[in-house]
Design brief:
180 residues; alpha+beta; 7 helices; four-stranded mixed sheet
Length: 180
């Protein structure tokens, strides 16, 4: 079992080297530098425990308004991408059922992430390929504040796809894998 401190360090390296280093998220550097990201490691015994952990993180965000973003990391669970997608679907349902829709948003990251319809070998999948399965919880109001000062938010995904495809599969894989 990988120690919690190592998981957090590897995740921070992935954020620094891949997410910020490749400018995949132009808003990540500010939050990362000011230490505003909460890292929560969960080792669920049952699939439904992941949803419970998600709801506890929503509660943490409710109770701590200074935390804008949380990475809920599952180093030992949801290794199969299909199982992870099931978790994401259940989390989205819980977001709605818990009256958190419009308050929090969830972004998904997984070591085997694959966009619908994309081939496994598409380097663009690395925009969401992380070192561990994780859910990224963000405050909607923080997203709105960040987007209000960004000239082309719609162009972020297009630029990321172009960047990763230009760099190629081997480069993107090497960059992410170097964080482990």
């Amino acid at each position: 079992m990988i120690p919690t401190e190592q998981i957090i360090a590897q995740t921070q390296q992935w954020i620094s080297e891949v997410v910020i280093g490749c400018n995949l998220c132009p808003f990540a550097a500010k939050e990362f530098k000011r230490g505003a990201i909460h890292y929560q490691i969960e080792r669920p015994a049952r699939p439904e425990d992941g949803v419970r952990a998600f709801l506890l993180e929503c509660q943490r965000l409710d109770d701590h308004p200074t935390i804008d973003t949380t990475l809920l990391i599952f180093p030992d669970a949801y290794q199969r991408f299909r199982d992870y997608l099931d978790l994401v679907e259940r989390v989205q349902d819980a977001l709605e059922a818990g009256d958190y829709e419009g308050i929090y948003q969830v972004a998904s990251f997984h070591p085997q992430y694959r966009f619908a319809g994309a081939p496994k070998s598409d380097p663009a999948n690395y925009t969401n390929r992380s070192v561990y399965p994780m859910l990224h919880l963000l405050r909607e109001e923080a997203i709105e504040r960040a987007l209000a000062h960004y000239p082309d938010p719609e162009g972020i995904a297009i630029r990321n796809v172009a960047f990763t495809r230009e760099k190629g599969l081997a480069y993107m894989k090497m960059l992410r894998d170097a964080c482990l």
